[in-house]
Amino acid sequence: MPKLTDSKKKENKDLILNASFKCFSRKGFHKTSMRDISKEANLSLGAIYVYFETKNGILKTLVEKGSKEMQTLLNPNGENSLEHFLEILAEQMNKPNGMEGFRTDIGIWAVLLDDDELRNITEASVQEFLNQLVTLLNLDQDHKTLATSYDSELRARVILGIIQGGAVQKTVDPDLDIVKYFKAAFSLMKLA
């Protein structure tokens, strides 16, 4: 059997992650089997286990990857603001498959109850997101686009709740105008 190159290993791992993401979004984490993932990835079941010992291992990698992608959207060190971030997030959610990640996130919440390692990874990811969001909020407050009456850390947690709530509502009601939802949320943030 020929040895796989590093680029082929990365390609296979990416195939598995993309296939898992699609399966988790479509069927949910608990109803997706490793066989479903192998079929979606067009790889043998054995090949899946070469890269990931368990479905939870795949999920942990997806959580870390999703966290990095969300942090890239936030980008507090660039020319960004809370309003701009929420606009970008709404655009992402309105894309044809834009809600897949959020549906998967909702499914992950149930898994967190039983998996300490995944909960720790998620907690670290959420904390990093909150830290970046605090930086962004402080910039907005410095530029006087937001009132300073509330602590930025508390405000960041409220924004996270608004984002998660919007994801749940958009999942339940695909016709929800998420752009208007986030604009309303931002206008409330400006008032407080």
Structure description:
- By secondary structure, the protein is mainly alpha-helical.
- The protein contains 9 helices and no strands.
- It has helices spanning 6-27, 34-41, 45-51, 55-74, 82-94, 100-112, 116-142, 152-172, 178-191.
- It is elongated, with a radius of gyration of 19 Å.
- The mean pLDDT is 83.
Describe, in short, the structure shown.
With 192 residues, this protein is mainly alpha-helical. The protein contains nine helices and no strands. It has helices at 6-27, 34-41, 45-51, 55-74, 82-94, 100-112, 116-142, 152-172, 178-191.
Question: Which terms summarize this structure?
Answer:
192 residues; mainly alpha; 9 helices; 76% helix
Number of helices: 9
- Measured as a percent range, the helix fraction is over 70%
Shape: elongated
Residues in β-strands, percent: under 5%
Structural class determined from secondary elements: mainly alpha
Tell me how many strands there are: 0
Low-confidence stretches: none
Topology:
Elements: H1 6-27, H2 34-41, H3 45-51, H4 55-74, H5 82-94, H6 100-112, H7 116-142, H8 152-172, H9 178-191
Helix pairs in contact: 1-2, 1-4, 1-6, 4-7, 5-9, 7-8, 8-9
